[in-house]
Design brief:
Elements: H1 6-28, E1 39-45, E2 48-49, E3 53-59, E4 72-75, E5 82-84, E6 86-87, E7 90-91, E8 96-103, E9 131-135, E10 142-143, E11 146-148
Parallel strand pairs: 1-10, 1-11
Antiparallel strand pairs: 1-2, 1-5, 3-4, 3-8, 6-7, 8-9
Length: 152
């Protein structure tokens, strides 16, 4: 057959197959999921378990934690005060330093009344909460308990 260079076509075909195989490998194989450390604890106000609220761990860049994710937990239901963090819908938190906030509000009973704080509002802001922890890899996870002041 005139005009067709079979040797060159095979080389080009070989390179195309190699590139396609590499792409399938890179795209088709997800990277291993980051290990998250189980983190739980108890939130109390003057030693009484918090009946409802939200706990958020904010990465602390001043201590080297530049992660953008904020592990969080909701306190509600049959286990007052108990929280267990989740990150990206998975149990646990990445290692690192965190500033902790707690939004401690009574469940709304009416849309007319403003929310009622169960603990001092300072705990709802990472700049004023005064709560800070370091999550480190531990065989059985970590527990951080916080006893909060009541509202002023």
């Amino acid at each position: 057959m005139a005009g067709i260079d079979f040797a060159n076509s095979r080389t080009q075909c070989g390179w195309a197959l190699l590139v396609a195989s590499a792409l399938v490998f890179v795209v088709g194989c997800p990277s291993p999921k980051e290990a998250l450390i189980p983190v739980s604890g108890m939130i109390t106000v003057r030693k009484q378990p918090l009946s409802s609220g939200t706990v958020v761990f904010h990465p602390d860049p001043t201590k080297g934690n530049v992660d953008k994710r904020e592990p969080r937990a909701t306190i509600a239901g049959e286990f007052p005060g108990l929280y267990m963090l989740t990150t990206d819908n998975r149990d646990g938190a990445p290692s690192g330093w965190y500033k902790v906030t707690v939004h401690a509000l009574k469940p709304a009973t009416s849309s007319v009344r403003p929310p009622e704080w169960v603990a001092d509002q300072k705990y709802a802001d990472e700049k004023t909460s005064g709560l800070s922890v370091q999550v480190v890899n531990a065989p059985n996870g970590q527990a951080f308990d916080f006893d909060l002041d009541p509202p002023k």
